[in-house]
Amino acid sequence: MPLVKIEIRKGKPVEYKxxxxxxxxxxxxxxxxxxxxxxxxxxxxxxxKN
Length: 50
Prior knowledge:
The chain has one helix at residues 14-32; strands at 3-9, 40-46. By secondary structure, the chain is α+β, with helices and mostly antiparallel strands. The longest helix has 19 residues, at 14-32.
């Protein structure tokens, strides 16, 4: 049961975030053979000011 922490810049569309999370999960399923239902992810959106 890996826990994945992802940090991205605030303001990305929902479709982008879903694709990112799905891609990371698919990679874990394929590479380290975690069960398909074993999905523990945290997405942090950071408000970075330049």
